[in-house]
Amino acid sequence: MSLRQRIEADSGFLLGFRHDLHQHPELMFQEHRTSQKVQEALKEAGIEFVAGLAKGTGVLGWIPPTEPGGHTIALRADMDALPILEETGLDYASQTPGCMHACGHDGHTTILLGAARALAAEPVRRNGILLVFQPAEEGGAGGNEMCRDGALDGSRIGSKADVIYGLHGWPARPQGHFSTKHGALMASTNTFRVTLRGRGGHAAAPELTTDPTLCLAHCITALQGIVSRSVAPVQSAVVSVTMIKGGTVTNVIPEQVWFSGTVRTLDEGVRKDVLTRFDEVVHGIASAFRCQAEIEWEEGYPVTFNDEWATDRWLKLAPEVFGPERVSLEPYPKLGAEDFSYYGHHVPACFYFVGLAKEGETDPPGLHTPRFDFNDGVIVDCVEMMCRLALAPLDLNAKEADEWVG
């Protein structure tokens, strides 16, 4: 039986597994049931693993080579869900109120498990394969926790990874269409909260107050000038204010107000410049309006950066498996963020997308929305792609040449 045939024969189990995960979503670092289900399936397939990583729910599997002379390929999937009330109406919809798999991590986990089961049955394997089932992609930096716990360095199980691959379903692309790009693929994130303090008073006598609300309005307007006037047009950045809070009644100017939001960039130099300008703008305007400003920053994920050599390897394999008509280069990076980015700080990494939009679907539900559901129709293809990435030989000479040229 060929690799493809084995995967197709396993599709019934995989769909059932995915639907079960979808019915029982768990938030970041709470993926205890999901982790247990993964462990049970790995044990059933005879795959060695260690559990309890990344604050308790991460799982790291290891499939050793059957022949000498290969290298180590790591494959990653995220397992957590989101605090969103599901509105799909599916017969396998979430049974946990206010929590659902709105980003497709149930699909990602199922795909990696399917690859694990198919690869364990592969008679000839020159590469060792690390299976990285991580928690807490949705804000918890579970990828970073997995790296800290030795998922890639060979200290927990298996051997040190030479390269790592991960995928994400993408509703805006046609079903089964694969894409990626070299370099920056997804953005870094920083979250801010700005508190402005003035002197409150009666709204009918504003001259006796120092109005932080007016200061807030000018800050928000001026911050939009950072991207248009402090970032080069050929580079990218986003400064978005998404929350505003101030006041209690209509006839009182408050003592303080606050606003918060996110900064997204694709380059570390731009990131530093934007944060510096942000501080200058806010403090400058606060001073002009005789208010005090306090800025709280929370550093988020770094840029998801695709290694040139690892991406070249993906771009060679994908068209061989699915044909060139189903593979493309992403025209530009996404300003969303991914904690897959942390793995690329340790080994060469490549992250890629698979289209989820069904034929004739003109307005598919987006990620992080109540009506989203991962498309089962791509699971078999995605499992095969993971398997091909795990089985194909690595050309480390090409990697060294890329590093030398770079």
Task: Give an overview in words.
With 406 residues, the chain is of the alpha/beta class. The protein is built from ten helices and 16 strands. The chain has helices at 3-9, 11-23, 32-44, 105-120, 142-148, 212-230, 268-288, 308-322, 379-391, 396-405, and strands at 48-53, 58-63, 72-78, 128-134, 163-174, 178-180, 183-186, 188-197, 201-202, 237-246, 252-253, 256-265, 292-299, 304-306, 327-329, 349-357. The strands form four sheets. An eight-stranded mixed sheet has the order 1-2-4-3-5-16-6-15, sandwiched between helices. Strands 10-12-8-13 form a four-stranded antiparallel sheet, with helices on one face. Strands 7-14 form a two-stranded antiparallel ribbon. Helix 6 (212-230) runs antiparallel to helix 7 and helix 8 packs across helix 9 (379-391). The longest helix has 21 residues, at 268-288.
How many beta-strand segments?
Answer: 16
Global structural class: alpha/beta
Quick one: overall form? elongated
Which runs of at least 5 residues are low in confidence (pLDDT < 50)? none
User: What level of helicity do the residues show?
Assistant: 25-40%
Strand content: 25-35%
Quick check: average pLDDT?
A: 96
Number of helices: 10
Order of strands, widest sheet: 1-2-4-3-5-16-6-15
Written as H for each helix and E for each strand, in order along the chain, the element string is HHHEEEHEHEEEEEHEEEHEEHEEHH
Radius of gyration computed on alpha carbons: 24 Å
Give the distance, in angstroms, between the N- and C-terminal Cα atoms. Answer: 43 Å
